[in-house]
Amino acid sequence: MTQSQLGKRLNVQNTTVSMYEREERQLDPPTINKLCTLFECSSDYLLGRTEHREPIISKKDSAILKAYYAANERDRMLIDTILDAYMDKSENGNRKTRGD
């Protein structure tokens, strides 16, 4: 992929892509996210922190997390209550009650 092609996908000039490559300009978090999505890799891989290309969580799990954080506080509390029950099951082999 050329700098121009990547710039179009990131909605930046190819000179900006060149500056990223030469480490003359820092990547901001939204651009890092776009690059990770584009190249289907984790941010740690993109930034050279690991040799594991695969994201730690799947695209589906990432979408679920985004939806959770986009929910209002009341809905997140409802989701938390349901998830707590499932996490208790998986950790203890059976369901705990709130008082335990």
Total strand count, please?
0
User: What is the structural class?
Assistant: mainly alpha
Determine Rg (CA atoms, Å): 20 Å
User: Please, how many helices?
Assistant: 6
Taken together, the total number of domains comes to: 2
DSSP strand content: under 5%
Order of helices and strands: HHHHHH
Shape: elongated
Q: Biggest sheet, open or closed, and with what strands and sense?
A: none
Helix content: 55-70%
What number is the mean pLDDT?
A: 84
Terminal residue distance:
56 Å
Low-confidence stretches: 95-100
Task: Summarize the structure in words.
- This protein is mainly alpha-helical.
- Helix content is about 65%, strand content about 0%.
- Helix 1 packs across helix 2.
- It starts with a helix and ends in an 8-residue tail after the last helix.
- The model is unreliable at about 95-100 (pLDDT under 50).
